[in-house]
Design a protein that fits this description.
Length: 133
């Protein structure tokens, strides 16, 4: 689900293909969640601020339910992600959809790696020289 949350609406729509028949249990709705941070990554928690999130819940005719939470206000993306979540639980289509999601995972990992390497080139090492007297 983290991969789908980070994917664009077009990537999800391409994976899903034609919209399957479904029932919307919770229509896409937008709200806010509190985002917490940690000082230094491992220190005390603090409230960083609020983030806008859209969620959706759907059910396929075979009873499989799909859930999604996505940052932002894109209702269509939340609905598509919920449909893809439900379809991924189906044994007949899970194989090819799982391959598509694995491709997204690899693409997102490569993008994170590239961003990390670009940031590493700007890293400055601060150190203190000790002068002998």
């Amino acid at each position: 689900m983290a991969t789908l949350a980070r994917a664009s609406r077009d990537e999800i729509a391409t994976l899903l293909g034609a919209l399957p028949e479904h029932e919307v249990l919770k229509a896409p709705e937008t709200g806010t969640v509190m985002v917490e941070g940690r000082a230094g990554g491992a220190g005390r928690r603090f409230n960083l601020g609020e983030a806008t999130v859209t969620r959706c819940v759907v059910r396929l005719p075979n009873g499989r339910m799909g859930f999604s939470y996505a940052l932002g206000r894109d209702h269509r993306k939340a609905r598509l992600a919920a449909l893809l979540d439900a379809r991924l639980q189906d044994e007949t289509s899970g194989g090819e959809l799982s391959q598509g999601v694995a491709t997204l995972v690899a693409r997102q990992a490569a993008a994170r790696d590239l961003a990390s390497r670009k940031a590493a080139t700007t890293k400055v090492d601060f150190f203190t020289l000790v002068r002998g007297e």
